[in-house]
Design brief:
Membrane topology: Peripheral membrane protein
Number of helices: 18
GO cellular component, one term: plasma membrane
Number of strands: 22
Subcellular location: Cell membrane
Radius of gyration: 24 Å
Number of domains: 2
Shape: globular
Oligomer: single chain
Protein name: Ribose ABC transporter ATP-binding protein
GO molecular function: ATP binding; ATP hydrolysis activity
Amino acid sequence: MTRPNPVLRLENIVKTFPGVRALDGVSFSVMPGEVHALMGENGAGKSTLMKVLGGIHQPDGGSIYMADEKVSMTGPLEAKAKGIVFIHQELSLAEELSVAENIYLGELPRRSFGRVDWATLYDNTNAILKKLNVGFDATRRVGDLSIANQQMVEIARALTVDAKAVIFDEPTASLTDAEKVVLFEVIADLQADGVGIVYISHRMEEIFKITDRVTILRDGQYQGTVNTADTTEEAVTQMMIGRKLDLSRNETTHDLGDVALEVRNLSCGALYRDVSFQVRRGEVVGFYGLVGAGRTEIAETLFGLRAPSGGEILLEGEAVTISSPADAIARGISLVPEDRKGQGLVLGMNCRDNMTLPQVGDIKTGPFVAEGAGIAIFDHYREKLDIRTPSWKQQVGHLSGGNQQKIVIAKWLSMHPNVLIVDEPTRGIDVGSKSEIHKLLRALAAQGYAVMVISSEMPEVLHVADRIVAMYSGQIMRTFTSDEVTEENLIQAISGLSAEKVA
């Protein structure tokens, strides 16, 4: 039996930017009906390779083939016309338009005299949404949807064209577990139709669940391609970063201090109720649960973004009222938000200005910011957190995800908080940078910070937390110490079983 040609094949792709060789002779191919993972640390060249495939960047060398025919991608429209569809991690939706208009943007069905055929548009869109099992229809304004549902709209775009290859870039970063199941069913259907899938993700459990092969890049160079069934997570990680990672459970190796933060019977309407916990100096307390469990909402209340409907917040044993982020900052609470790009950074600003933004009023000389003071703060935390950037003048938007996250953490550490709250600290970050962030959080605790970590990744909370608060539907189901928690009892707790049933 003759083996089919790859759906697409990239051979010896070279791409150079001023001072940087982003791709150095990279080859990659996808077979019909195959799910092929593309992996590497942030900055390894994955995005650049896909931008070459999508016509956004023109290669300086190498060739692109589709079904063994050499092609030239002059732009995104040509790539789409050739059957290459991109599902981006960074949402590219028009929030003021409807779901239907976003999905068929640029290809709206027309009637006579160029009028939009709204009935056909909505019928076609609703048929696609039915396959995705979502809870909204074609007429819904995209800006009114949650981030997870907006991601489903992005995914729906792939079902509107005769795709030859679909590139999924971190597609599950904002999805619930139920939505992930639907996504994997969609991918299976595309496979059955002979579509080639490129799957870019840092989530190892997904890679080993749905992919057939894995290709690894490092520093713009091709490291190799392996069959998923024939490799291990440890082997893939070593190919990605060139070293072994410490994936062991956390064991506290320092003494804990006094209680820095205590919450008693805190409630916020229907979002969460009767929540009580403590965080001591030198301790990392992890909050784990499904989407909608109330974890982020608790953090937002502590930071003054939400008003509680009942209960108390105590700092150093003193009851306090926090009505705004300014109140929280003044009382020594800092929040590293879940959405670092949308809420934590100004991407067009340089590293120094992002890092000193909360204290710009304190480093002024008259009406001007004292440049030297800002640079001194940047230099201190650049060294302390090992932030990799050419200089303080670099735009934050040009940094890797891991270094962007370090800038956000440094911004709040420079305020010398008593309590540091970090929401989804490694979302969208490669495995090497993830390990560095974990070490950083543990080091901060060892220095006496009281640290709250909110995470949707079980290995993360198991690795960094001294205690884990398991939440379900706005309630704390159980609090585990690191020596008593197991994956089984943690899953049971976040699924709604009471402490008595779990025990």
